[in-house]
Amino acid sequence: MATDFWASSHYKRWIVDRSTLKQARADDLVYVPASEYLDFFTIYFANLITKLCKKLQLRQRVVATATVFFHRFYLKNSYCETDPYLVLSACCYVAAKAEESPVHIKNIVTDSRTIFSQPPYNVKHFPSDNSKLAEMEFYLVDDLECDLVVFHPYRTLLALCKKESSSSASGGNADMVGEEAEAGELGTGIGAEDGPRYWGTGEGKLELSEAALQTAWFIINDTYRSAICLLYPPHLIAVTAIYLTLVLHIPTQNSIAHLIPYSPAFNPDPAIPAESSQPTPQLRRSSRSSDSSSKQAQQDPIDFLANLNVSLSVISTIAQEIISMYSLWNRYSEEPTLEEARNPHIAGGIGSGTGTGSGSGSPSSAGAGGRMEDLFGDGTGSGSPASHTSQLGPKSGSGNTPGSLGGGETGTDDASSNSSNQNPWSFGQGRLVTAAFLSDMLNSMREARMSDMAHPSSGRPIVVNRMLERTG
Amino acid sequence: MHADTSLDPMRIYRAKRDASHVYVKSKYNILGFISSGTYGRVYKAEDASGNLHAIKKFKPDKEGDVVTYTGISQSAIREIALNREISHENVVSLKEVILEDKSIYMVFEYAEHDFLQLIHHHSQTLRCPISIPVLKSLIYQLLNGLLYLHSAHILHRDLKPANILVTSKGQVKIGDLGLARLSAQPLQPLFAGDKVVVTIWYRAPELLLGAKHYNNSIDCWAVACVLAELASRRPIFKGEEAKLDSKKNVPFQRDQLLKIFEVLGSPVEKDWPTMTYLPEYPSLKRLDPYPNRLFDWCQSCLRSQSGYDLLKQLFMYDPDRRLSAKEALEHAWFKEEPLPTANAFASVSPSQIPPHRRITQDDAPSMSMTIPLQPGQSGNAANAPGPPFTQVLSGSSQQAQAQAKSGSHHTGTSGSLGDGPTVYAQGHGHGTTKMRKKRRL
């Protein structure tokens, strides 16, 4: 059924494990110095999808669906054998239709050409002919196995949480407000027997301030910059976004601090304290001091999460993956570094480029939808990497590398950081990877692949992609 | 340096994909042409193990004589997307989708009959009513399939006899999800993109009065129309559709409403309090009042008190009071003798079962057929059964072609994004009218 996740194509065919993910990138891995670059590609292309969809005035759910399509496509294909720009354009085109917001193919082609041809992407080969995109659409829908209904965490978020009734916060996210309006638009007779969808005690939804709800919404937006949407069901991603909001959104943190007991019983799962209570010292301190200021009887968010009947250890794993994604994203920039600006021909020069990353732009353009980190704290310093570092950095504890945060689950990341250490292309902690650099790297990957295919005796390992077998 | 990749960055991918592609013709044996419609053509086919299928081939888009891609139509995307998520014994199942050579082929399970063909068989050949056991079983299974769709939050939006299939084992299969939509948390409101939904004769009064927000109950109204049509062997509300004007404004459907009022009486505010808010309410008020004579209508057709009651409750003007599919399934009519049967034809002698779907040679062959047709089969168009998936003309492919050439609403619509479905619904009612006239000669 189209609204029952457990009976959906999404659950039955498109939740994959890590080894499948790894397998899917095996061909590409041959052509990059370190697997970490492939994770940067994920951010790079997800940002581009967001950018294209915003230009086409498509809603966030279309962006999300398009990005999921893109991820799914590259479960079966390699960057080095395809044109990801054409693929992502087709993803937006199909997603717009699948989400009942069709746009004309001409508009997609025009806007794609406009965006991709500009720096930092400098992609001049995007076809001006509609039929090329339409042909790609055929291949794409085929590779997606015609599974076009995608579930997203937004629905769960709004089912579990509601805005504080007394909230005076303003400046709401248009997408979110719109989404709620739509839900109310259902009318009688539809889903009347379904009732509100939340689990647990049945006592009701978790009340969050508008800003907190937005933060959770933005965290969900950001998860599409990693493979999280392929690894975990959307409702767990939503719960994780709520959890991270409670922990990281400072006003919310302060408002609930008095409810959080400072005790090991806070979390029976050893995985969580290692990552959450330790990086949030404020949380502990204020838990005692602000008791007196507790206003009215408030819901206990800990109880709320505990009663959701989801595996909290899975939630903590997802939380770690989200934080890994953020620490990677902090090192990504759409703007060229100073060195690149001086000499655009040395893409590899990045590795020795601006070490600390200060002064270079964060993905501001990609953050049009609002990056979660910008909302942390007082909300100032939006977009500047310095503010990201000061706010998120300390919280991530001692181990700021993706590998150490991810624990066992992110073993591939561990491997990647190891290999990058031995590689001449390696970049150190905090080194920036720019969009222009990735754009160049993609070109060389494809060229190398082409020449390998032309001369197959090059001795490169030939990889079998498991996802391909199931269509056969 | 980049010259090589700039030429065709997808070269390797394309080569791999094309090499592994399984062609429609290598997998299926095309037995004949079934029908054509706005969207394309439907063929009967069998696979290597002899299983029968209906293959719906969407029309490729044409600019002049050159076949081009302009993208998969919204309707095809819907039908593909929804079909991949659902599975129910009373809904036609999609076996696979093959995308090749700029065309979309949807391979469905095959059904030998449809409601329109059944009605036709009884009115023209047998000249007797459809028996109550058959009628009740058909409606019960139809409601069962509809309940499944509705509980999956899918609105069908185009239920009518031609879209409701029946297998040779008497199992009802709801077909054609080309206008269907997910109703749960839509990103766009239901009226966006499809100004007109449901073929005019089966269109619920709230839609005729311009309601922008509607729900499952529009499908239940259509079921009531289908029930009445099975019982009387003619459409109960056979109105003339007022056409969209040049600006695509939807006109007031006066004639269709009058046809409804002639049987059900004029709606009164007491029974339908919210009708005063509907856009066309002022036009409605100007119509003459009619008394309700549904009971009399049923005397000649349904001849059952509870059957009348079911029809009455499905024909409630107020969508909120209209029976849902679930409530209808629990209605007393289905609990009294004769009980509905899993094989709708269980009580029918073999000679009374409608003949198999006729297939013909494709006049404008877009798929070559491997088995030559028997002599005389292609000339028999007028008696051919109704279309299973598509709407315009059944049997006669000549007619279909002629109409496709003459009627502007049949050409070049399948690829357009916004107004495809609008034209679909419109062209559809029109085509059906023509077909009926032809048949009753």
TrEMBL record, chain A:
<feature type="domain" description="Cyclin-like">
    <location>
        <begin position="47"/>
        <end position="142"/>
    </location>
</feature>
<feature type="region of interest" description="Disordered">
    <location>
        <begin position="343"/>
        <end position="427"/>
    </location>
</feature>
<keyword id="KW-0010">Activator</keyword>
<comment type="similarity">
    <text>Belongs to the cyclin family. Cyclin C subfamily.</text>
</comment>
<dbReference type="GO" id="GO:0006357">
    <property type="term" value="P:regulation of transcription by RNA polymerase II"/>
</dbReference>
<keyword id="KW-0678">Repressor</keyword>
<feature type="compositionally biased region" description="Gly residues">
    <location>
        <begin position="348"/>
        <end position="360"/>
    </location>
</feature>
<dbReference type="GO" id="GO:0005634">
    <property type="term" value="C:nucleus"/>
</dbReference>
<dbReference type="GO" id="GO:0016538">
    <property type="term" value="F:cyclin-dependent protein serine/threonine kinase regulator activity"/>
</dbReference>
<dbReference type="InterPro" id="IPR043198">
    <property type="entry name" value="Cyclin/Ssn8"/>
</dbReference>
<feature type="compositionally biased region" description="Polar residues">
    <location>
        <begin position="383"/>
        <end position="393"/>
    </location>
</feature>
<feature type="region of interest" description="Disordered">
    <location>
        <begin position="270"/>
        <end position="298"/>
    </location>
</feature>
<protein>
    <submittedName>
        <fullName>Cyclin-like protein</fullName>
    </submittedName>
</protein>
<dbReference type="InterPro" id="IPR013763">
    <property type="entry name" value="Cyclin-like_dom"/>
</dbReference>
<dbReference type="InterPro" id="IPR006671">
    <property type="entry name" value="Cyclin_N"/>
</dbReference>
<keyword id="KW-0805">Transcription regulation</keyword>
<dbReference type="InterPro" id="IPR036915">
    <property type="entry name" value="Cyclin-like_sf"/>
</dbReference>
<keyword id="KW-0539">Nucleus</keyword>
<keyword id="KW-0195">Cyclin</keyword>
<dbReference type="Pfam" id="PF00134">
    <property type="entry name" value="Cyclin_N"/>
</dbReference>
<keyword id="KW-0804">Transcription</keyword>
<feature type="compositionally biased region" description="Polar residues">
    <location>
        <begin position="413"/>
        <end position="426"/>
    </location>
</feature>
UniProtKB/TrEMBL annotation, chain B:
<feature type="domain" description="Protein kinase">
    <location>
        <begin position="28"/>
        <end position="334"/>
    </location>
</feature>
<keyword id="KW-0539">Nucleus</keyword>
<keyword id="KW-0808">Transferase</keyword>
<dbReference type="GO" id="GO:0004693">
    <property type="term" value="F:cyclin-dependent protein serine/threonine kinase activity"/>
</dbReference>
<keyword id="KW-0418">Kinase</keyword>
<keyword id="KW-0460">Magnesium</keyword>
<keyword id="KW-0723">Serine/threonine-protein kinase</keyword>
<keyword id="KW-0678">Repressor</keyword>
<feature type="region of interest" description="Disordered">
    <location>
        <begin position="345"/>
        <end position="441"/>
    </location>
</feature>
<keyword id="KW-0479">Metal-binding</keyword>
<dbReference type="InterPro" id="IPR050108">
    <property type="entry name" value="CDK"/>
</dbReference>
<keyword id="KW-0805">Transcription regulation</keyword>
<dbReference type="InterPro" id="IPR000719">
    <property type="entry name" value="Prot_kinase_dom"/>
</dbReference>
<dbReference type="InterPro" id="IPR011009">
    <property type="entry name" value="Kinase-like_dom_sf"/>
</dbReference>
<dbReference type="GO" id="GO:0016592">
    <property type="term" value="C:mediator complex"/>
</dbReference>
<dbReference type="InterPro" id="IPR008271">
    <property type="entry name" value="Ser/Thr_kinase_AS"/>
</dbReference>
<dbReference type="GO" id="GO:0046872">
    <property type="term" value="F:metal ion binding"/>
</dbReference>
<keyword id="KW-0804">Transcription</keyword>
<dbReference type="GO" id="GO:0008353">
    <property type="term" value="F:RNA polymerase II CTD heptapeptide repeat kinase activity"/>
</dbReference>
<protein>
    <recommendedName>
        <fullName>Cyclin-dependent kinase 8</fullName>
        <ecNumber>2.7.11.22</ecNumber>
        <ecNumber>2.7.11.23</ecNumber>
    </recommendedName>
</protein>
<keyword id="KW-0067">ATP-binding</keyword>
<dbReference type="Pfam" id="PF00069">
    <property type="entry name" value="Pkinase"/>
</dbReference>
